[in-house]
Amino acid sequence: xxxxxxxxxxxxxxxxxxxxxxxxxxxxxxxxxxxxxxxxxxxxxxxxxxxxxxxxxxxxxxxxxxxxxxxxxxxxxxxxxxxxxxxxxxxxxxxxxxxxxxxxxxxxxxxxxxxxxxxxxxxxxxxxxxxxxxxxxxxxxxxxxxxxxxxxxxxxxxxxxxxxxxxxxxxxxxxxxxxxxxxxxxxxxxxxxxxxxxxxxxxxxxxxxxxxxxxxxxxxxxxxxxxxxxxxxxxxxxxxxxxxxxxxxxxxxxxxxxxxxxxxxxxxxxxxxxxxxxxxxxxxxxxxxxxxxxxxxxxxxxxxxxxxxxxxxxxxxxxxxxxxxxxxxxxxxxxxxxxxxxxxxxxxxxxxxxxxxxxxxxxxxxxxxxxxxxxxxxxxxxxxxxxxxxxxxxxxxxxxxxxxxxxxxxxxxxxxxxxxxxxxxxxxxxxxxxxxxxxxxxxxxxxxxxxxxxxxxxxxxxxxxxxxxxxxxxxxxxxxxxxxxxxxxxxxxxxxxxxxxxxxxxxxxxxxxxxxxxxxxxxxxxxxxxxxxxxxxxxxxxxxxxxxxxxxxxxxxxxxxxxxxxxxxxxxxxxxxxxxxxx
Length: 583
Description:
Layout: H1 4-8, H2 12-17, H3 19-26, H4 29-34, E1 51-75, E2 81-85, E3 98-100, E4 108-118, H5 125-137, H6 141-152, H7 171-190, H8 193-197, E5 208-213, E6 224-232, H9 248-254, E7 263-270, H10 280-285, H11 287-301, H12 306-317, E8 322-324, E9 327-329, E10 334-337, H13 347-358, E11 362-366, H14 369-374, E12 380-382, E13 387-389, E14 400-404, H15 415-430, E15 432-436, E16 441-445, E17 450-453, E18 465-467, H16 472-476, H17 478-488, H18 492-506, E19 511-512, H19 517-530, H20 536-552, E20 557-558, H21 560-576
Parallel strand pairs: 5-7, 10-17, 10-18, 11-14, 14-17, 19-20
Antiparallel strand pairs: 1-2, 1-3, 1-4, 1-6, 4-5, 6-7, 8-9, 12-13, 15-16
Helix pairs in contact: 11-12, 11-18, 12-20, 19-21, 20-21
């Protein structure tokens, strides 16, 4: 195993010369953890061309770039020729007494892919703390990076680019660099940081990187990915290699100051696992116990309603396992209603706060008439600056969206509001978001669980409505209930098990037992006879509920026991609805 010091000393030249060995080293997860992360170490602690990590979501993809993979340089003083690599660098470098031989037969052009990766939208604090923990364990970690930065600030890189030595750069070059820095500062004042970062959900610690990728990789928008690569922080990057035909808007977006948007030259791409497989058997073996602990907390937060807690657990475990025509099998949107609780007007926010303790990614969307009319939910292509401008619904899979309708009032809905309404409906019913490319529109598939909190039935069509049955005693002591729930979850092992339970069960394999198919058909016929408004669509929903209920108890197959339990839950849910026409 290589030491963290050696990894910090890697340069692009070292990696190119020792590619096979370096790639083998990077296949070791323990070594990867030693590489400092842009997510959790301030940018000013890094030096230019240092090996770093960055984890985030692919927000946009730019056109491929052409670059010199290899180029020949001639020393005008000595007449000596040298061939250099242009990989993992933003431009070909040479000193003032050197020239690039553009017509050389040794030159080789290549193509690299460019994308914009941003901090994962909706990532909850406990997840950030988990990744940040290695840097916090040792209080001197940041100082180690800082010392490394200071020690290397005046040193040359280990190979063919002595231009990095400040003492060998001409006064004209220094003057040019100062003019460039001043120009960048002026541009930065004209364009806001928020505009450049282009985050769907603005956060104080959010960052963006322009990532250059040298190998073919299967990537798509909104995918979560971790990049290992060499970071470029040279302030000259914001003005070099620019197309003179670029508009000012396009210039700002594609060549932002590196102090805000660093460049990252990827040497390895890692797709994080959706579940920690090594803990899966342990979690499945004690699924019932963990479920019982989670049910206890949720039922108390839902005013003693055990049925609502059962439905909420199933909702939290929902994830698409198959798409067929317009059906998204596995999704289970939920609408909790009838929680008029007088002075406890913060119920929605309190419940959401607890949900953020359980799931990795989430967002609370408060729907008011003003928000409905003004929010930009769908991403749109901005041709003036040639980029995809984020919308609130540009989220990665398994980001739990909680819609709070308690502040919605009557009023005039604008055309933009009606468009937003349609976007929300498409997300809930078809798990897709339409991206607006001005001249055409494109649908992108999503997997975003949606929970709607509304005092009456939601204005957004949602088949699975659960009317809360509020326990009077719980209502009277609700602030104390919240305190007790918080205290109950201070047990780190209990909370960690709940988090792992929701993550692992969500991706567990499941099989339907063919032997109970006839039983399913018979029970559904009886349900339709009792509840006239139950349609064939309810059968799909009921089958998904039965699947989620089985998984929640740690069962990978649908048995008669869990099927009967799901039917009973559904009968009770339908019986609570104030009007049968709302089914």
